[in-house]
């Protein structure tokens, strides 16, 4: 019966989001909301590989940018519906993730992390030199005036992102709590021991990297329609990669809920800082918060709460 | 397109560039190669070195290389401090893999954004009498703004090599990656030795940064391109071998120079990262591996 609350909350969120998008006039909320939801998907995806399986991916921006550029390429070719582009981005980035998964055969820890960073820059260079999608000058996207019953296009994108984020979290939650999740945790804690105990490590790692890649591609696919102008430097922005690492680290990497807490918290702070201070300071905040959290609270907010609860439980009988 | 002149010029330009890359990768070769600390922020420290050279050069007109050398002690102390945090936060508690990586990733980000906040995103450059002069040797042109960094880089690499090979501390640095217990029995504290080694690694960034800004204008996010280069060089060079680092740097420089000459500059970043990915995938122990 533990399943029920998650889905009830999801449906409520979806209903609230749709109502919000259909009625609220101020577009700023949707821009901010979209950014935070995009970060939620990225953080959730990163955590499937980074938190559950223990492989650090520095190249999140590569998957994200490739997803965005899949959309741009399809848009240039024959302007299919957005949903087709999202599926295509999931497939392309999922395949890239699968390839990355085979890298884990030879590369552990640090080497894997550096390889993913290299991958992101290779992809960026390829896009800079690929004139079909605009090359280094970028590509413009013309968005429709409105879709379905939504008064604004950004409202529609917001609800779309909300659905994608819920789906991403549901996948992460399933992976976390199922047999697969226990296998991934075994790989994280000791890959050799897991292999010896009969855990199909390669299969699970490939699953983990593929799902991560596909989700990041999905997060990036609507980007061209959100910003209406895409160029390689902004699509492969390092901030995307830093956020994807910082948010799970802040929330807590061990469970599916950590990245959401981190994304909501850090995402909101960033939006607030962007409006009230300046966009450079908002970037600095991410860096400082990331370094602060991993140094002082390695298990994130979830870990802090658990520690507090344990303390309360330990003190409980004595005071009662 | 393909003429002998062009070929010779590409080779010479590549060797110059490669020598400079050796200076850039030298610090990481010690820190990553010998201490196994993944200082992904190393290029960011180099950019910080470039901006120090820019500031002092613009204010007082001193030679950038002199500024780099003069600021080595400052960078050394910064390095010792960063290692202190790293040791207390990660290495002592055995969390260096995932959290340590993210720590340096965040540090790189902080340095970059701090530079943007202070100096903006404009390109900055320095003044020195040799910038703009060119030597002509037969058909080959050697710009002095490449030649001076090349020579400086070779000297610095040589000095570090001799220091590691001849002095007690230098040998202790080489020993710390091999056998900590034995090192302790020889009367040296591994933590102190590692702090010194890390400091030296960061100190080389002061000079490398000065060289970088002599070669061309610099802006804060420049460091990212160098992440692939420095790690490609250190890993190809066999993790911590100074000679291997120099050879790998020269090879990468020549390769990049060829791509730049015959395919165009926008493809050049791909060389380093491509080489890095291939090395990692097929020969992680490097060409001159210590494995």
Overview of this structure, please?
Chain A is 79% helix and 1% strand. Chain A is built from 15 helices and 2 strands. Chain A has a two-stranded antiparallel sheet. In chain A, α3 crosses α12 and α12 packs parallel to α15 (300-319). Chain A is globular and about 55 Å long. Chain B is mainly α. Chain B has a single domain, classed as ABC transporter involved in vitamin B12 uptake, BtuC (Orthogonal Bundle). In chain B, strands 1-2 form a two-stranded antiparallel sheet. Chain B starts with a helix and ends in a 9-residue tail after the last helix. In chain B, 53% of the residues are buried. The mean pLDDT of chain B is 85.
Write the layout of secondary structure elements.
The complex is a heterodimer of chains A (320) and B (291).
Chain A: H1 3-23, H2 28-53, H3 60-78, H4 82-103, H5 109-129, E1 139-140, H6 153-177, H7 179-189, H8 191-196, H9 201-220, H10 223-227, E2 229-230, H11 232-235, H12 238-251, H13 257-276, H14 279-296, H15 300-319
Antiparallel strand pairs in A: 1-2
Chain B: H1 4-34, H2 42-60, H3 64-70, H4 72-91, H5 96-119, E1 134-137, E2 140-143, H6 144-166, H7 168-176, H8 180-185, H9 190-215, H10 223-236, H11 242-262, H12 268-282
Antiparallel strand pairs in B: 1-2
Helix pairs in contact in B: 1-6, 1-9, 1-10, 1-11, 2-3, 2-5, 2-9, 2-10, 3-9, 4-5, 4-9, 6-7, 6-9, 7-9, 10-11, 10-12, 11-12
Short description, anyone?
The complex is a heterodimer of chains A (320) and B (291). Chain A has 320 residues and is mainly alpha-helical.
